[in-house]
Predict the 3D structure of the following.
Amino acid sequence: MNKLVGLTLLGLAFAGAGCEQEGPAERVGEQIDQAADDVQDSAEELRSDLEDAADDAADELDDRRDE
């Protein structure tokens, strides 16, 4: 039983050590994920800015009609 526990712990140690090493493909994948997040953030900010500009333009038109 003690051998089984020892082997299990040893196996987990090797598995954990293997997970810490990051290869070039993983780094590129993370960079792609980050770039996609950046694009999404920029698109959301642009959409928000465009909505604000459209609201401002609509308010300006309403103000001019009321004059």
About this structure: The helical segments are 2-20, 24-66. The chain has a mean pLDDT of 84.
